[in-house]
Amino acid sequence: MTKKLTRREKHSLYAASGIICLFIIMQFIVLPVFYKQDRLKRNLKVKTEILQHMIALKSEHGAIIQRTDLSKGHFENREKGFTLFSFLDKLSGKAGIKDHITYMKPSTTVQKNSPYKTSRVEMKLRGLTLQQLTVYLHMVETSKNMVNVKRLSISKTGKPEGFIDAVLQVETSEL
């Protein structure tokens, strides 16, 4: 090809070469840099979300540890020989409803893979006022012995107006 290119052909060839070079530069240098930046930004966002989740879990774990320590303290502060049955019996005397107790049925459940057991007492109370029941329930729920009312059933009695019967199940955990 000894033939010389015309000026117009040279310009066309230079333009085509420039476009091809520009395409190669864009395809193999510029675009990969942008794709890498996008990928890094996405990774950073994901890692930030994971970190925030880990911080939330750490905070939750700390709260659980704090509640566990508080519970252990309550267990240690219980009087020696604490039993749920005797505790409820004493409280009923303080609340003045001991005469209204029809029965108290204690039961104990041992928890698997744990040193703790759950003690329950089911009580039936007859012919008491709602005020008397409220005072007794308040004494049970606010004691520092980690005792709570699991179930409560209230019904009207056939006696004079304003009296009720109640069946309640109280429980606590013990070592």
TrEMBL record:
InterPro entries: Transl_elong_EF1B/ribsomal_bS6. Gene3D superfamilies: 3.30.70.60. Keywords: Membrane, Transmembrane, Transmembrane helix. The chain crosses the membrane at residues 12-35. This is General secretion pathway protein GspM. It comes from Candidatus Desulfatibia vada.
